[in-house]
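User: Look at the shape:
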Amino acid sequence: MSGERKILHADMDAFYASIEQRDDTALRGRPVVVAGASNRAVVAAASYEARKFGIRSAMSMRDALRHCPTVCRVNPRIDHYAKVSQQVFQIFNEFTPIVEGLSLDEAFLDVTNSLSLFGSEVEIARQIKLRVKNELNLTVSVGIAPNKLVAKIASDLDKPDGLFEVTHENMRQVLDPLPVSVIPGIGRVTLEQLQRAAIRTVRDLRQASDHVLEPIFGRFAHRTRERAAGIDDRPVTPFREEKSISAEITFDVDLADGRSLHRELLKLSERTANRLRKKQLFAGVLQLKIRDADFKTFSRQKAITPASNSTDVIYALSQQLLDNWLLEHPGTQIRLLGVGGGKLDAVEQADMFADNTNVVTSQVDRAVDLIRNRFGALAVNRARTLDDV
């Protein structure tokens, strides 16, 4: 079809776990998960050997061990994964400047204007896969389609180390038999509603009437039917504005006393502020996430005026929000805490010196950042974050 876009969705296979297996030969061929040290930690990634036991991302380590008692747990190395991700994206960008990163391990590539240089879209996908394998000793699965929606679905149809192309000619043949859950935005509750309406495949969804879909999707019924037909006009956007930066922790033991919670809150504030500074961003909104022992999740937020990436500013506001929540929920056991910054803006040099208080704080933060960047995250800590203080 003349003028048709050629979109690739490149998805690294079990990225974190594959890096660990690549770097440590003793882990190769074994079930591996990347997760924190406690049984309540959440699995960040699972190797394909681990997935055969039913282990998946976002599962607790307790459940992962129940599925496979001999699974190998490896501590996350996010900074290392980020460096490898940069190498992956360098390869992507050599084939097209139109690369939309979705995370460290996946991206959309619009190669429509690259065909005259590198050959067909299938040949480009093969070259990318070969480069990733030869240069990084990792594998990537690639889906090819006329649009982002179908390319993302296609990349999951031949994993791991796969390549799958969907065209206008074979689109219905490929999409129709698939379970309706492959359509983005259909979660567990919606899936249950669709199943009650006897809608189980993409074809069922594509052919469903407004009378059936509107009670489930409301004003989005027509758009959902279009997705089931493989219609998606969204362009590949090379720059995705970051909407928030955050850090969170799930505790080994539920916490209720204010001193322990404040100590953990300071650690989270430091991590969030450090990430903001690394990206040279100010946050205009402070976001607090709380999950209690009954798995109920609460969120609170407060404006940061002026916008800031100071650890002390972020901690002070998050402390206010937490203390107010504790007054409303006295004695509640807390399972998880999270601190985030939203309404992000690029740091302007003039704002850095808006008032003397912020200048001092920024200098302290910069000194801490320099030490940690050179000697590691544990090289220096605030006394208030230590258990014995």
About this structure: DSSP finds 16 helices and twelve strands in the chain. Residues 372 and 380 are 7 Å apart (CA to CA). Residues 15-77 form a domain with the MutS, DNA mismatch repair protein, domain I fold (CATH 3.40.1170.60). The first strand starts at residue 7 and ends at 12.
